[in-house]
User: Fold this.
Amino acid sequence: MVDVDKVLDEAGLTNPHVREYVKEWAAVTTPERIEVVSAADDARLVAEALESGEFKPAGEGLYYSQSYYKDTARSEERTIVATNDPADKGIYNNWRPASEMKPKLIELMTGASAGKTMYVIPYLMSPKGSPLAEFAAGVEITDNRSVVMQMIRMARVGAEYINDLGDSFVRAVHVTGDLPNLGQGTPDDKRYFVTVADERTILHFGSSYGGNALLGKIAHGLRQGSYDGWKNGFLVEQFMLLGITDKQTGEKYNICGGFPSASGKTNLAMTLAPDALGDRYYVEFYGDDIAWLWVGEDGKLYGMNPENGVFGVAKDTNEATNPTALDSIQPGSGAIFTNVAYNVKTQEVWWEGKTKNPPEDLDGWHDWKGEAIADRTPEQAGEPWAHPNSRFTTTMGNVPNVAKDYEDPKGVEIHGIIFGGRTRDREPLIRAIDDVAEGVYDGLTLGAEATFAADGLDGQLRYDPMSMRPFMSYPEADYAAHWLEVIGRASEKPVFAHVNWFQRDAEDGHFLWPGYRENLRALLWLMQYKNGQVEGRRTAVGVLPTEEELNLEGLDLPQEDLDRILTIDVDRWRQEMGFREEHLNQFEGLPEEIWEAHRRVAKALDDES
Ligand code: GTP
Ligand code: MN
Ligand code: MN
Assistant:
């Protein structure tokens, strides 16, 4: 038996509530050792991981890691939000009674860390001193060393963040389990990822993949956070957050927004290229995956990124699409690459789209499962080298255009909120929405093609309200009402907009818009629109830029493609309204303002000739 008190004393972990929680779970999972970690332990943990083979070197201060091959993405089916109140059951939160789930998880976790080290990770999902800091603290306990090093990069980690907080921290328990024997994806699946939201307790069993195992990020930063926000008057969303400064006028605009997983948040937030537009603008990175939004004492809407790092999709990251991401994973950055391809001889990493073609010399290259590429049969030749959901992990401080004030506890004022996703038809490049209820309605009816970030859903069309579907923790009707209430309280309303970088040609399937770094052009138009500098063209579904208003300098787009992305297909939209009605009808008790917005848009479409 570990002398828990002795370990906690030595680590300076004095908070009595945290101590009690650690003891309680150590008694369940029965680890061989316990260690309290802080960011200062990173170098030692890395050395241990290199020694054990958990990490492989991928250049100076860069690391390659692999999760089990059946454990490479979030599992939505196995993810549950549990509470003690059946009224918390929504359509997407997979609600179960807390009294049913807790005993199940305790049973699965009993003795499950035997022989392992239990790491205690005190963390904060906000800058220190944030007005929301009381909801941001947590203590993850995990039996997985990779998880610790990922958490150190993604959150603020150390006992100093939680010692003074009393009982106000999230209890986040992660047990990896015996990965080869968990029946992933079979009827006998043993994994469970449960957030007991009204007890502020997270119990995840059966994965070491980031989205399931870094509990500060998704389980706390999104699911628990949004439940807390509902009860305490703030919003928690899967949003990126960026700032654009017009150097000529000195004006700065901050835009946040939600796109479903693997639909371009990280790319948009990191990679905008002001230099393409004559050096007039300066774009700053605040966050790429989560934003917490609140109304400040001055009545304005504020936002902050609770994370301290970036967990980005590797696929298609290259000099052209996202040079900023490449800069932030340079030698010496401490970046971790998970489930990419790896060369055991040269220690290089590669993923699809890193370069146009894979390396020619196959010697030493292994795919994401660890199998030698040179040994592939002709049938296997076309299979990807890297998993499509392979990721890089790096800290905010490594991102070259990180905002100087990204750690300011005050947060930043929010001027615009955008929604977008992968939509191959119907959705134009950008449409601005002035009315708050219509903006919220637009977010609730965000529909897009699902991606490889969740198991087994790639390519399916589905609605993903505000990009929160996989993270929804309470009923959708309450969620809509909460949005209207919070934004309604703001003295200055943000402009809303829907964007789409993914419209395709119906015949050959090419993307109609070059995307990536060029997306700044659409956001600049939105800011000019908010400022009254451009008027746009009013349509039934919002205001679209005219061709003259949109900065197209230096772009060579076929007129046909441009026409398509700057107009709406009224027939296709009329059909869409029927699908939306069905979608919204699932949400019992949806606020009347949302239905009114729906009817206004439907009528405007009917009136359009
Ligand atoms: P999560 O981190 O899973 O929440 O996803 P994300 O929204 O941050 O997605 P990310 O920015 O990592 O983009 C995922 C995929 O979309 C990558 O394969 C990108 O290459 C692709 N992508 C991003 N932006 C664009 C764009 O503007 N145009 C096109 N065609 N593809 C894009
Ligand atoms: Mn995400
Ligand atoms: Mn991302």
